[in-house]
Amino acid sequence: MSQRPPVKAIGVISGTSMDGIDVSIVETDGDTVVRPGPGRTFSYPDDLRKTLQALIAEPARAQSEPLEELEQAVTDAHIDAVRRFMAEARIQAKDVSLIGFHGQTVYHRPEARFTRQLGLGSRVAEALGIDTVYRFRHADVASGGEGAPFVPLYHRALASELSQPIMILNLGGVGNVTYIDGDVVIAFDTGPASALLDDFVSRRRGLGFDENGQLAASGTADQTLVAAFMGNPFFDRPAPKSLDRQDFHARAKGVEALSDHDGAATLAEFTVQSVIASLRHVPRAPQRWLVTGGGRRNGHFMRRLHEELGVAVDSVEAVGWDGDFLEAQAFGYLAVRSTLGLPLSLPTTTGVPHPMPGGELHRAA
Ligand SMILES: Nc1ncnc2c1ncn2[C@@H]1O[C@H](COP(=O)(O)OP(=O)(O)OP(=O)(O)O)[C@@H](O)[C@H]1O
Ligand SMILES: CC(=O)N[C@H]1[C@@H]2OC[C@@H](O2)[C@@H](O)[C@@H]1O[C@H](C)C(=O)O
Fold this sequence. Notes:
35% of the residues lie in helices and 22% in strands. By secondary structure, the protein is an alpha/beta fold. The strands form two sheets. Strands 1, 2, 3, 4, 5, 6 and 12 form a seven-stranded mixed sheet that branches. The protein has a five-stranded mixed sheet with strand order 9-8-7-10-11, with helices on both faces. Helix 7 runs antiparallel to helix 10 (260-276), helix 9 (223-230) crosses helix 10 and helix 10 (260-276) crosses helix 11. The mean pLDDT is 96. The ligand CC(=O)N[C@H]1[C@@H]2OC[C@@H](O2)[C@@H](O)[C@@H]1O[C@H](C)C(=O)O binds at residues 15-16, 105, 108, 115, 147-151, 170, 172-174, 176, 189, 242, 327. InterPro entries: Anhydro_N_Ac-Mur_kinase, ATPase_NBD.
């Protein structure tokens, strides 16, 4: 057991879907003690979200433009979100030891040892008067790791009492899994989760996402196209491996010839099959899957996953976790680990050569 007293850390992240800034709080010793608190999601201002969406659709810009003004605006939106969260949850700055500030991923190319999260840690620390850790993924990528996923060590801490092996599946814009069996933690990105479907229903119907997977459920998947998508060598590549949100977009163009219903069904089935393919890279088939992220609200995903896997597939709420805020809490947990010099990632979660500390601390003035 750890001897360090637990502290309170706020975690804040905007995921690849850019559907909002998630803020939560966790009380933790950075090791086995984890007491998650409440969370809230705050939308980006419309113009900022549109600017970011346009940016990630142009990877060359996202990679190399300085983006100073945009980075300040992204940072200020996060500061505002944390302020509102603290006011609404009646949390005082003096009671919070740390902020774990993930920022907004706009470009991720680990093979080029490059990942970019917009966000200025010093600005957050100064504005809120709380020590802030940011740049979580950089040391990992610099040492040859995938730089993602980073939530697995938090999953491990949360799952210590559950029957194992167990699989935690995050269905965000991109999908990722954490396989936990005692000390064995294997994690990797699985493929697209909602990103392709979101963009498809936005183009075809002007929708933000396919509510409960209704459109996908009403269509028929084109199995030839799904098989072609699944022919991507990514799915056979051993773990660890990670993805950029846009990685499958160019190759998924075949759905353009399909109706709205069948196109949505085909993209949803691609997501489902890419999740199933994750079983190629774990030692034993888990008897239970716990699903987190916005995609757990897509009933079509959940139903198809259960049919294909033939084992229990539940939302993480079934074990008392909050699937809207696991990622935010994870970055609070990781911020505490960062200040203690503990690893944030492992050879089996990101492919780093050895357990890797990371993050940069900015002290409040
Ligand atoms: N009611 C719902 N029905 C269907 N899908 C939903 C629903 N609510 C959310 N989603 C899906 O979940 C997505 C958002 O998930 P989440 O917030 O976990 O993503 P993220 O954290 O931004 O992404 P990532 O984990 O890749 O960084 C939405 O874009 C949408 O596709
Ligand atoms: C580079 C980046 O931001 N990756 C995200 C993305 O969204 C889901 C998946 O791809 C995961 O690898 C990661 O996010 C979570 C928070 C993680 O690091 O675990």
